[in-house]
Structures are given as structure tokens and as C-alpha cells.
Design goal:
- By secondary structure, the protein is α+β, with helices and mostly antiparallel strands.
- A hairpin with a 6-residue loop joins strand 15 and strand 16.
- A four-stranded antiparallel sheet has the order 1-8-5-6. The protein has a four-stranded mixed sheet with strand order 2-4-3-7. A two-stranded antiparallel sheet has the order 9-10.
Length: 455
């Protein structure tokens, strides 16, 4: 309870999406009927979906409709089959909802989770853990997968962080810092207490390049091992062979007790003894990264982690912040107050960037087409990130047609000097993707064929 939230861990974790209606969930067969295999753009609306049971038990193999960033009219125009499904399955429920925002935005999820979308934008992977689970496990999920409200998503794609979180050290910390679902039932991973307060190892604790690589490699092996054995038995099921089943047997092996016949079958099919060796090696490597290789007592471990948390907090007051994801966190995002209209909080850019993304009336570019980019009146590329994003949003909003990346680039001339002159053309794709994640832009097509429009 003495541990405090660290700036180094801020704006990286959040609960997944709260749909507010089962009508958003579709089976594989229903997704095909909606045309997901025929329309590449539909795959950004009908997405892979995971909840806690999908990860710990037998996966449901379902997808979810996510029309974030679109008006009802846009959804009806672009994806009429999806629109009709939500009209029939979701709108009747929403029409009687007492919350104005939920009732009026019936085609969207109950909570929009703009903060989570901003965190996960541009990441190929993210780390997920089930909020309430018998065993505390972490795994990588592909960025295309939308996490349910019962998952905690951590916006890190580094195997090193996956390894530290998967270690016994963090497991013990989460067990002590989190809460419980009822007396004697499953522990709950509370992100504000379990993740945001947790002090990761660094060079000051004994972390070396070799240890970092070893932890990363072992984390990747554990993640791949579990996914491989569970996938290999999908067509030939073994009773109890789930993620929870694997760790039931793992705990039995740690306790040194004799396995039952069912546990022996799981051990054989799931290679749990091998999984145990990987976890043992990971725990040893993480302990070494903290300089605590001789430590075996849980109470002493927690005491040292609390002391390290206090040390990190004192460092942060002096300006030394050991960012976990510096390019994303470092002075670029702040927590805004709760929005009374949509009942959700957002972690957005400073300088009121997102608030001011509405294009100004005196837009520089008008009547633009991709085939006639010579008509552009190029503007100088701004020097600051807020002005850059604002300018790109203005270009998209001013164009009556979707624009290719070269067409957007042609709207600017690189500055002669200043911070904005550094590789401004390489910054542009990331800005477009950020606008898309925030619901201010929409992309049609992929790769060189991608076209961008204002949302």
C-alpha cells in the first residue's frame, strides 16, 4: 500500500473495450455473410476479438464490429450489411437506454476507449493479461485484435517487458497489490496498483545487455510454446488442455506432488515440464536483473520492490524518469478530465491538439485530386508536433476526395531549419495513423494503394 504510481509506467495500460451489447459480436460464419472476405476495408470494422475466457479457456472464435470513427450515415453508405445488423441487433436495446450518449451513438461501443486506441496505435503487438484469473499470465496479442473489457491491455511490444511481467517477481507483486473477486476466489489485476506502481529493473539494479536479451528470448519462447501446444491440440482436444490447465499442472510440478492421470495427459500434450524449465530460467534471469539472485523469500522480495518503487519515485521528482516507452510517453500525452458526453477519459496530445483538430475556415488547399497535385499551394511543414498534426488534419478536411500519401506530401514543403526539418516526410505516415486512431482520419486500401480522407 506504500507504493505510488510511477510516471515511467503511465499511459501504457488500460482495460479493453466495453461493447454494451452482444449484438456487436459475430461468429466466423456471420462475418463471412457480412462480406469480410470480399471487402478488405471491412476487416478494419469486423475485427478479431478476445475476452478473458478466450485466453484462459476454450476460445469462442468470434469477431466484433467496431465502427469507431464513423457516423451512422458513413457506416450505412460504406458497409450496409453491417449497418443493418446493428440496426436490428443493437439499436432496439440502445433506444431504451437512459444515457443520452449511449442511446444517440447506438452503432458504437458503449465506451469509445480513445485513450486505449491512442496507446495501441502503430504497435504491431501488445501485451494482454486477464483481469480476473486463477494464474497471472501475460501474452502478446496481435494489434489487429480488439481486447474485451475483461482484459488489461499493456501498450508495450518489447519482449523484455513481457518477460519481466511474466516472472514470479511481478506475479507476487500483482498478487499482493491487486484485489480479489470474493473471498478466496481469483485474484484481480488492478492496473493502477499492479502495473503503474511496479518498478522495472534497469541499469542501476544490475540489468545488462546480455540479461535483457536473455529475458527477451525466454519470454518469446514461453509465449510461443504455450500458443503452439494449444494450437496443436485444437483438432485433437485433450481434456483440460487450456492455458489454465497448463498452469494447474505447472503448479503441481512445482509442488512436487504426483500427477493424476488427467494431469499426466496434459503434461504430455502440453509439454508442461518444458514450460516449467522456461519459467524457472526466466525467474532466475529477472532476479539477476534486479541484483537479487540469492533472494527466495516472498516478503523480502515485496519489501525490496516497495523500496525500489520509493527510489524511482524520488528520482522522478528530480526529473529522472525511466520511461518504458519513451517515444510515446515522454511529455507528449496527458490525462484529460472525464468527458461527460461519452463517459470516457482520454490520454491525448498536449497543447489541446486533438481538441483543435477541427479544420480552420481558411484552408490552404481546395479542390484537390490525387491526379492533379500540381494545383497544390504548398505550405511549409510546421516545426512543432501539434502544428504538424493540425496541418495534416486540415489538408485532409479540405480535400473533397481521398488522398494518397504522395498527394498529402505534396501539400507541404520541408522547412529549411528547425525541429520540423528532420525527416519530415518519414514523420507524415505516423501522423496519418495517429489521426486514424483518434477517429479524425480514415484509410481506404493498404500499402501504396492507401488513400486517406477526413473522418
Amino acid at each position: 500500500s506504500a507504493a505510488v504510481a510511477l510516471q515511467s509506467n503511465a499511459n501504457l495500460s488500460n482495460r479493453g473495450h466495453e461493447l454494451g451489447s452482444a449484438g456487436f459480436i459475430v461468429t466466423e460464419k456471420e462475418a463471412r455473410a457480412l462480406g469480410v472476405n470480399d471487402d478488405p476495408l471491412l476487416k478494419t470494422v469486423v475485427r478479431e476479438y478476445r475476452n478473458g475466457r478466450d485466453l484462459t479457456d476454450v476460445p469462442r472464435q468470434v469477431k466484433v464490429i467496431d465502427a469507431f470513427g464513423m457516423t451512422a450515415e458513413q457506416l450505412r453508405s460504406r458497409h450496409p450489411k453491417v449497418y443493418q445488423r446493428l440496426l436490428e441487433r443493437v439499436k432496439p436495446e440502445r433506444d431504451v437506454n437512459r444515457m443520452d450518449s449511449v442511446r444517440e451513438r447506438w452503432w458504437l461501443h458503449r465506451r469509445l476507449r480513445e485513450d486505449l486506441r491512442a496507446m495501441l496505435a502503430n504497435l504491431p503487438l501488445y501485451i494482454a493479461t486477464v483481469e480476473t484469473a486463477k494464474y497471472r499470465t501475460f501474452q502478446f496479442l496481435d494489434a489487429s485484435i480488439l481486447p474485451d473489457n475483461k482484459l488489461i491491455a499493456i501498450a508495450l511490444d518489447d519482449s523484455f517487458h513481457l518477460g519481466v511481467l511474466s516472472s514470479r517477481l511481478h506475479g507476487d507483486w500483482a498478487l499482493a497489490a491487486g484485489s480479489w473477486l470474493g473471498v478466496g476466489n481469483d485474484p484481480v489485476y488492478v492496473k493502477s496498483r499492479c502495473f503503474e506502481t511496479f518498478p522495472f529493473p534497469s541499469e542501476d539494479t544490475g540489468l545488462t545487455a546480455d540479461l535483457r536479451q536473455k529475458i527477451s528470448t525466454l519470454a518469446e519462447q514461453i509465449d510461443a510454446h504455450r500458443k503452439r501446444v494449444l494450437a496443436n491440440t485444437a483438432n485433437e482436444p485433450v481434456a483440460g488442455l487450456t492455458l489454465t490447465g497448463l498452469y494447474n499442472v505447472l503448479e503441481a510440478l512445482k509442488a512436487g506432488r504426483e500427477l493424476t492421470a488427467k494431469e499426466k495427459a496434459i503434461n504430455s500434450a502440453g509439454l508442461v515440464s518444458t514450460l516449467k524449465t522456461l519459467h524457472d530460467e526466466l525467474d532466475a534471469a529477472v532476479l539477476a536483473a534486479y541484483g537479487w539472485s540469492d533472494l527466495d523469500d516472498v516478503d523480502e522480495l515485496l519489501s525490496r520492490l516497495v523500496a525500489l518503487n520509493a527510489q524511482r519515485a524520488a528520482e522522478e521528482k528530480t526529473g529522472l524518469i525511466r520511461w518504458l516507452r519513451p517515444g510515446f510517453q515522454n511529455d507528449k500525452y496527458v490525462n484529460l478530465p472525464q468527458n461527460k458526453n461519452n463517459n470516457t477519459s482520454s490520454s491525448l496530445f498536449k497543447d489541446e491538439l486533438v481538441v483543435q483538430l477541427i479544420p480552420e475556415q481558411n484552408a490552404t488547399i481546395t479542390n484537390t485530386t490525387n491526379s492533379d497535385i500540381d494545383k497544390y499551394t504548398p505550405m511549409a511543414w510546421p516545426n512543432t508536433l501539434p502544428d504538424q498534426v493540425r496541418a495534416v488534419a486540415q489538408v485532409l478536411a479540405s480535400s473533397p476526395v481521398p488522398l494518397s500519401l504522395p498527394a498529402v506530401q505534396a501539400a507541404f514543403t520541408g522547412p529549411a531549419s528547425g525541429a520540423g526539418s528532420r525527416s519530415w516526410q518519414t514523420t507524415l505516415p505516423a501522423i496519418l495513423q495517429t489521426l486514424e486512431a483518434l477517429g479524425r482520419a480514415r484509410v481506404e486500401g493498404t500499402g501504396d494503394q492507401a488513400l486517406w480522407r477526413s473522418a
